[in-house]
Amino acid sequence: MKVLFKKDVPDVAAAGQVKDVADGYARNFLIPRGLAVVATAGTLKQVADVQAVAARHAAGEEHATRDLKQRLEAQPIVVEAKAGSQGRLYGSVTAADVSAAIQKQIGVSVDRRDIDMGEHIRLVGSYQVTAHLHRLVSATMTVEVRPIGSA
User: Fold this and answer.
1) What is the mean pLDDT of residues 134-151?
2) Is the pLDDT of residue 151 over 70?
3) d(Cα 46, Cα 18) in Å, to the nearest integer?
4) Which pairs with CB-CB distance under 8 Å and at least 24 residues apart come from 85-88?
């Protein structure tokens, strides 16, 4: 029996996939638990339409993300922090601080968990930081850490 999987079933199929399974397995396990439905011509057409819309949406989202990447890489992100006379920070600059600086300077929200710094920044200076914006798009931006009150 051909069924359309509504949810992922480990070692069997992923959601949205059409697969031929044993009749008893479909009738007694998959369909009663809401994991799959019988694959009719109507359901297959409906799934194809939904997947086409999702593909168009993903393409538009990726294009917008590439524009954001260019904006992030075009100018340095400036983070001001308290620092001693030799440029050592009182504390450190974290991914959350970089995220807040991006929001303030560019007006775009980037989740702190998507920012890869390696380790916290503890000195004044210029650093390369990677932001994972989309599963296919990452931006490598320059973060300038300056002591508070400098220009």
Assistant:
1) 85
2) no
3) 13
4) 87/123, 87/124, 87/125, 87/147, 88/122, 88/123, 88/124
Q: Three-state SS across 48-98? A: HHHHHHHHHHHHHHHHHHHHHHHHHHHCCEEEEECECCCCEEEEEECHHHH
User: Each residue of 59-99: pLDDT tens digit?
Assistant: 778 788 888 899 999 999 999 999 998 889 999 999 999 99
Residue ranges and CATH numbers for the domains of the chain are 2-63 (3.40.5.10), 69-147 (3.10.430.100)
pLDDT score recorded for residue 127: 95
Q: Which two tokens stand for residue 111?
A: 């989740």
Write down the residue that tokens 């599963």 correspond to. 135
